[in-house]
C-alpha cells in the first residue's frame, strides 16, 4: 500500500485515524502497531513476519547488550546485516560469482535464487541497528516496553520510505505525545504538500523519464538525453521529498515529530553542501554509524579520503544491489574527496552562480548512474549528453509526444518549487488573513487535483521498492 493511492487516502487512513483517536491514550501504541502491521501486510503479505521478527529480536538483543556489550552488539550486527544481505544482496553476489567463473570458462553450478525483496527492509533494518548501537554506546536505555519499541520500528508513516527515524529522537514521544488540533492541521497540510509533490510533479516527470530511458541510447539526440535526465532530477527529488513530507505529516497527525529529511538540496553550492541537504536522515546515519567509527577525519588526510570513499560506496550499495548504484556512490565520493583536497576552497572564491551550476551539473550527471539499469547504459547515456548529436526521426517524434505543453508547465513548476521562494513568501505573510485563506484554498486544490490524477491514471511508480 502506498500513500498516493485512493485506498490509502479514503479507506485506510480515515479508519486508522478514527480508531487511533477513539482508543484510550495509554493503549494508542497498540492500535498504531496493529494498523502498521496491517498496512505492511496489505502489500507484503507473509513478509510481515520478517518485520515482526526484527522487532522481537532487536528488542531483546538490546537488553542483552547491557549485560554482554561486545557479544550483544556483534550478534545484532550479524543478524541484522545477515538478513539484509540474504534478502537484498544474495542474488547480486551469486550472479557476480557466476559471471566471474564464466570469464574463466569454468562451469559454476550455483543456482540463481528467486528472492523477493521486502519493501522498506533497508529502512527498518537501519533503524534497528541505530537503536542497538546507541544502546551499546550508552546513548539510550533499552526500551522496557516491547509495545513501544515495536511501534517505533513498525510505524507505518515512515516504514517503507523513511525518513530513518532514530529511537533517541522519539523515545520520549512513545509515552508522552499530544495530538493537538493545531498539530493535526499542520500534519494534514504537510501531507497534502507531499502528496502534490509526488502525484502532480514526480509522476508527471516519471512519464517523460521512463519514455526516454526506454529508448535506445544511440537513437537519442543530446537534447533529448538532457530532457530525460533533467526530468529525472526533478522526479527523484519530488518523489523522495514528497514521501518524506507525507511521512512527517502523518507522524504529526498521530502526535510524533520526525526530523526534516530534505532542505532544498538543489540550491547547494557544493557536493558537500548537497549531502547536508539531501536525504538528511540517511546521510547522518552513515556519518554517525560508519564514517565516524572508521575514524572520520581524525586520522589524517589520506585516511579521511579513504573513509569518505568507503562511506559513499556503501551508500550507493544501500540504495540497490547493482553496480550502477555503486558507481553512483563512487561518483559522489570522488567529488567529495576533491572538494576536501582543495577544490572546495576554490569554489568559495568564484561567483555563487557558478558554485550552483557546478553542483547541479555533478548531481545531474550522477543521477544518470542512479536511473540507468546498467553501468553500460549509464556511460552510454553520459556520452550522449555531450555528443551534440541529433536523434533519429522516430525518436524525435516520440519525444514530442512525451513532452507536451502540460509537461513543460510542470517542469517550470518543478524548478520554482525546488527553490525556497514560496516558503519564504508564505512565512513573511503568515499573519495576513487573506494569505491564510488563499493558502487553504491552494491546499484544497492540490488535494483535489492529486485525487483526480490518481483516479484518472494508473501510472503511480514506487521508487522505493528497490530499497
Quickly list its features:
mainly alpha, 72% helix, single chain, 467 residues
Explain this structure.
The protein is 72% helix and 0% strand. The chain is an all-alpha fold and 467 residues long. It has 2 domains: 6-177, no CATH class; 183-466, no CATH class. α1 (6-22) runs antiparallel to α2, α10 packs across α15 and α12 (280-291) crosses α13. The model has no long low-confidence stretch (mean pLDDT 91).
Write the layout of secondary structure elements.
Layout: H1 6-22, H2 28-44, H3 48-67, H4 69-103, H5 121-136, H6 146-154, H7 156-159, H8 167-170, H9 181-213, H10 222-253, H11 271-277, H12 280-291, H13 301-319, H14 323-349, H15 352-371, H16 375-385, H17 393-402, H18 405-417, H19 421-428, H20 433-456
Major sheet attributes: none
Average pLDDT reading: 91
Order of helices and strands: HHHHHHHHHHHHHHHHHHHH
Given the helix and strand composition, which structural class is it? Answer: mainly alpha
Per DSSP E runs of 2 or more residues, the count of β-strands stands at 0
What proportion strand? Answer: under 5%
- Rg, rounded, reads 23 Å
Molecular shape? globular
Summarize the structure.
This protein has 467 residues and is mainly α.
Amino acid at each position: 500500500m502506498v500513500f498516493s493511492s485512493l485506498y490509502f487516502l479514503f479507506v485506510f487512513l480515515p479508519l486508522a485515524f478514527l480508531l487511533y483517536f477513539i482508543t484510550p491514550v495509554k493503549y494508542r501504541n497498540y492500535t498504531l502497531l496493529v494498523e502498521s502491521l496491517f498496512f505492511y501486510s496489505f502489500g507484503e503479505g507473509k513478509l510481515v513476519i520478517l518485520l515482526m521478527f526484527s522487532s522481537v529480536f532487536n528488542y531483546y538483543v538490546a537488553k542483552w547488550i547491557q549485560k554482554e556489550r561486545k557479544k550483544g552488539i556483534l550478534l545484532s550486527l550479524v543478524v541484522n546485516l545477515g538478513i539484509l544481505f540474504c534478502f537484498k544482496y544474495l542474488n547480486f553476489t551469486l550472479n557476480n560469482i557466476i559471471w566471474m567463473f564464466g570469464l574463466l570458462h569454468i562451469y559454476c553450478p550455483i543456482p540463481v535464487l528467486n528472492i523477493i525483496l521486502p519493501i522498506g527492509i533497508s529502512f527498518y533494518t537501519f533503524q534497528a541497528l541505530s537503536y542497538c548501537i546507541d544502546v551499546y554506546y550508552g546513548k539510550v536505555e533499552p526500551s522496557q516496553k516491547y509495545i513501544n519499541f515495536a511501534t517505533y520500528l513498525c510505524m507505518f508513516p515512515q516504514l517503507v520510505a523513511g525518513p530513518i527515524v532514530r529511537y533517541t529522537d522519539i523515545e520520549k514521544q512513545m509515552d508522552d505525545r499530544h495530538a493537538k488540533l493545531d498539530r493535526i492541521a499542520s500534519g494534514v497540510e504537510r501531507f497534502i504538500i507531499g502528496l502534490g509533490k509526488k502525484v502532480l510533479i514526480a509522476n508527471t516527470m516519471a512519464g517523460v523519464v521512463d519514455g526516454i530511458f526506454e529508448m535506445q541510447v544511440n537513437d537519442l539526440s543530446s537534447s533529448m538525453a538532457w530532457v530525460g535526465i533533467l526530468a529525472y532530477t526533478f522526479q527523484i527529488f519530488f518523489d523522495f521529498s514528497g514521501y518524506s513530507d507525507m511521512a512527517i505529516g502523518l507522524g504529526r497527525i498521530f502526535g510524533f515529530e520526525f526530523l526534516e529529511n530534505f532542505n532544498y538540496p538543489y540550491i547547494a553550492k557544493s557536493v558537500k553542501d548537497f549531502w547536508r541537504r539531501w536525504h538528511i536522515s540517511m546521510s547522518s546515519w552513515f556519518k554517525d554509524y560508519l564514517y565516524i567509527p572508521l575514524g572520520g577525519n581524525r586520522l589524517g588526510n589520506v585516511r579521511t579520503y579513504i573513509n569518505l570513499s568507503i562511506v559513499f560506496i556503501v551508500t550507493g550499495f544501500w540504495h540497490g544491489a547493482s553496480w550502477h548504484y555503486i558507481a553512483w556512490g563512487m561518483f559522489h565520493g570522488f567529488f567529495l574527496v576533491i572538494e576536501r583536497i582543495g577544490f572546495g576552497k576554490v569554489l568559495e572564491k568564484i561567483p555563487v552562480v557558478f558554485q550552483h551550476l557546478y553542483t547541479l551539473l555533478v548531481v545531474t550527471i550522477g543521477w544518470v548512474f542512479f536511473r540507468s539499469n546498467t553501468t553500460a547504459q549509464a556511460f552510454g547515456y553520459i556520452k550522449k549528453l555531450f555528443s551534440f548529436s541529433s536523434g533519429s526521426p522516430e525518436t524525435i517524434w516520440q519525444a514530442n509526444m512525451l513532452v507536451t505543453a502540460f509537461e513543460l508547465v510542470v517542469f517550470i513548476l518543478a524548478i520554482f518549487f525546488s527553490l525556497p521562494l514560496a516558503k519564504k513568501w508564505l512565512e513573511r505573510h503568515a499573519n495576513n488573513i487573506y494569505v491564510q485563506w488563499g493558502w487553504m484554498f491552494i491546499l484544497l486544490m492540490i488535494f483535489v487535483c492529486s485525487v483526480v490524477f490518481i483516479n484518472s491514471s494508473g501510472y503511480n511508480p514506487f521508487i522505493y521498492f528497490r530499497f
